[in-house]
Amino acid sequence: MEREMDAAMDLMRRISPRQSEMALSALLSLVPHHSADLLSQVDQPLQVCMDKESMKEFILCEYNRDADSYRSPWSNKYHPPLEDGPLPSDELRKLEVEANEVFAVYRDQYYEGGVSSVYLWEDDNQEFVACFLIKKDGSKTGQGRRGYLQEGSWDAIHVIEVGPEEEGIAHYCLTSTIMLSLTTENKSSGTFNLSGSIRRQMNLDLSVADGHLCNMGKMIEEMEGKLRNSLDQVYFGKTREMVCTLRPPPEGVQIRLPESRPNV
Fold first, then answer.
1. Residue among 55, 51, 116, 103 nearest 77 (CA)
2. Sheet holding 128-137: strands in order across?
């Protein structure tokens, strides 16, 4: 049983984000007894739904799902409607509303558009857990403003476990995952596809004098900078190196790949 789960996770780590949904569906059919573990541990490209009450889009994920319904961070209601769906406490809901407003500003400044959602919930072993999500569609038909990509998406998932406060200090454990997929197509170079995912973790003990939201925001900003640099070095750098090795460009000509920034 344990070997099955290990093999399934190894497979999902090697699957392109573009094919992860199909691969996960196949695994759930092969090992249905591991469905709960797979759904909770495997990150999937984010999906978006419209909250008709607030007329704002929100992101669907495992952290706001109950049965087949998803809770909107804007109206705090499930779509489709669900009776007795779990909701955050009044205090946590107040922080959640503030976090969504602040993170929407962060998204516009760093990503030049896209959709963001923040979800908070109580946890028995922590003070609370927060999930910050961003999805940017960079394709020509999506939210792309530069028109370089035929298809492209950037999915960012940041989960922060906030420990109980002790003497004005709280422990923060941030686990971040970035999924990148892009496709370009033109007459001179043909079709080019690059996709992959990267995950990193950060642990910090910080003073809560400035508030949890300020501390979490600083950690996410720092982590996203590191992840973008890693993606640039690992994916774009290695791809450029292999292309230039296999097909050296004419003298004086430089090979340029699409930028790794999310605001494509």
1. 51
2. 115-121, 128-137, 151-162, 169-186, 190-207
How far out from the chain centre does Cα 45 lie? 8
For the chain, helix (H) and strand (E) counts, in that order, are 6, 10
Which pLDDT band holds residue 219 (cuts at 50, 70, 90)? Answer: very high
For helices 2-14 and 20-30, the axis angle rounded to 10 degrees is: 170
CB 20 within 8 A of CB 42: yes
The overall pTM is greater than 0.85 = no
Q: Is 48 exposed, middle or buried (0-12, 13-18, 19+ CB in 10 A)?
A: middle
Question: Which residues lie closer than 8 Å to 30 by C-beta, 6 or more apart?
Answer: none
3-state secondary structure of 83: coil
Structure-block tokens of residue 32 = 């249905």
Q: Which helix (H) or strand (E) holds 213?
A: helix 212-231
Instruction: Say if residues 165 and 127 touch (Cβ distance below 8 Å).
Output: yes
**Alpha-carbon span 74 to 221, nearest angstrom:** 23
Residue 233: which pLDDT band, with cuts at 50, 70 and 90?
confident
**Nearest-angstrom CA–CA distance, 247 and 242:** 8
Amino acid identity, residue 257?
L
- Residue 111 makes CB contacts below 8 A (sequence gap 6+) with 134, 136, 154, 262, 263
Report d(CA 111, CA 260) in Å as an integer.
12
- Give the per-residue pLDDT at 162: 96
Give Cα separations from 23 to 63, 67, 107 (angstroms): 21, 21, 30
Instruction: Locate 243 and state its tokens.
Output: 């292309």
Bridge partners of 136, per DSSP, are 154
